[in-house]
Design goal:
It is a single chain. The protein has 453 residues and is an alpha/beta fold. It is built from 15 helices and 22 strands. A seven-stranded mixed sheet has the order 12-15-16-11-10-18-19, with helices on both faces. A six-stranded mixed sheet has the order 7-6-5-8-9-21, with helices on both faces. Strands 3-4-22 form a three-stranded antiparallel sheet, with no helix packed on it. A hairpin with a 6-residue loop joins strand 3 and strand 4.
Length: 453
């Protein structure tokens, strides 16, 4: 029997095993999805909204249990895990309240007696999701797509199977009909067959650039719509007039929360002109306040990374950056999955800390002579997901923001995903958008209706 193991990252202890589905079971799930869609697409927004609100209520009611499951499976500190569950409830409520208005017919004046655009669900959407925000990643696609009348098939990361099954059970407990949301416990070797299956009409993936290139190619081969969010190496640009203490506090939070394992974490800190020394010292002070340890301990502020292979990769990138001339200020020791928060100075082109995505608790400071060079450094990267700019001159910051090649730029604030804003990137960070008014339309048939005179 082939199984996936759930391992508590802090100790390396195996806490559960999950049997991988057979081809027969997968086929049954797909068939059930197709049958369910035929009825679900006909339900009213009011019916869907009532069920989605129930999901939100259950998330809050069982928040602590879900948070414990998250922490056990991927190591997120319990406080952050609770906040993640609460954010999912907010997303459910947002789409329960706004989906109908987002998908209203749009009149399109023309030479017709009547012409308009209408939005129709396309069917089963396969979601291939990562482990780093195991609840949030799922709900940010499930809430809008289910409210739009589509049905969902979740292929979650192997190390968070418990979370995946708990979410499926949650939708059933809330009253969603069987087959509307299903979890597939499957390995990567069957993903191509699932994508190619006639029942699957769209694919959304959050993951690595490598995974995105494979899934995007498979979706293209099958002529199916895909949305890809493939990570980033977000910048924080700190101008000389910035509030250094606040900028350092927020940048450190962005970089170190979830043990540095976030697509939109601030990964490259770019200081302009004379901002370097004050900002670097402020960041050092903030990192020194962090307490690494057992993610279930309330005093712990940063936990382990999710898997040993991930910690080893960050360690290799970190050491290579040092060998290429970066200066270590603090941190960088690894013990199993536990990687101590690190700060590097004098990060330059050619180092992994500059050119690659470090998906762990390592911050690197890059020095730019002026704003133009800061923009050049920011854009001289294969990724373009998010960015932050810190300056008391908000007009100047907004001008710089328009020059940054990214899906989102936050000024004097933490870069975050939010149901109200479109989320996604450019370049190798992927294509398409999740969340907001724009995200709910990604897997809809945008249909023209023309009535002749």
């Amino acid at each position: 029997m082939s199984v996936f193991k759930s391992i508590f990252p802090y100790t390396g202890e195996t806490i559960a095993e999950y049997e991988i589905m057979s081809e027969t079971t997968i086929e049954n799930c797909l068939t059930q999805s197709s049958v369910a869609f035929q009825q679900w697409r006909k339900t009213s927004f009011i019916q869907r909204s009532v069920l989605m609100m129930c999901v939100a209520d259950l998330l809050i009611q069982h928040r602590d249990a879900y948070a414990t499951l998250i922490t056990n499976e991927m190591g997120k500190i319990l406080k952050e895990a609770k906040a993640e569950v609460e954010k999912c409830a907010t997303c459910c409520r947002y789409y329960a309240e706004h989906a109908e208005s987002f998908l209203k017919d749009i009149d399109q004046p023309s030479d017709a007696a009547k012409s308009y655009v209408t939005f129709e669900p396309i069917g089963a959407v396969l979601a291939i999701m990562p482990w780093n925000f195991p609840f949030w990643q799922v709900f940010r696609f499930a809430a809008p797509y289910l409210m739009a009348g589509n049905v969902a098939l979740l292929k979650h990361a192997p190390n968070v199977c418990g979370v995946a099954l708990a979410i499926e059970k949650l939708f059933l407990e809330a009253g969603f009909p069987k087959g509307i949301f299903q979890t597939l416990i499957v390995d990567v070797d069957v993903v191509e067959k699932i994508i190619d299956h006639d029942i699957v009409q769209g694919i959304t993936l959050t993951g690595s650039e490598f995974a995105g290139s494979k899934v995007g190619a498979l979706a293209g081969k099958a002529i199916k719509k895909s949305v890809l969010e493939l990570g980033g190496s977000d910048v924080v640009i700190v101008l000389e007039d910035a509030d250094m203490q606040k900028a350092a506090q927020v940048a450190t939070l962005s970089r170190m929360q979830n043990a540095g394992q976030s697509c939109i974490a601030a990964k490259r800190f770019i200081t302009v002109g004379n901002a370097k020394d004050d900002f670097a010292q402020a960041v050092q002070n903030e990192i020194a306040k962090l307490k690494q340890g057992d993610p279930f301990n309330e005093s712990t502020t940063t936990g382990p990374m999710a898997r040993i292979d991930l910690a080893e990769k960050v360690e290799q990138q970190f050491k290579t950056s040092l060998n290429k001339g970066a200066n270590l200020v603090m941190g960088g020791e690894r013990n199993g999955c536990n990687f101590s928060p690190a700060l590097l100075l004098n990060v330059t082109e050619g180092m992994p800390a500059f050119n690659e995505e470090l998906f762990g608790p390592v911050a690197g400071i890059i020095t730019a002579k002026n704003e133009a060079e800061a923009i050049q450094f920011a854009n001289d990267h294969r990724y373009g997901l998010g960015a932050a700019i810190w300056s008391k001159d908000v007009e100047k910051a907004q001008s710089i923001a328009k020059e940054i090649q990214a899906g989102a730029v936050f000024i004097n604030a933490l870069v975050k995903s939010d149901p109200r804003y479109p989320f996604g990137g450019v370049k190798k960070s992927g294509y398409g958008r999740e969340l907001s008014y724009f995200g709910i339309h990604e897997f809809m048939n945008i249909k023209t209706i023309y009535v002749g005179v």
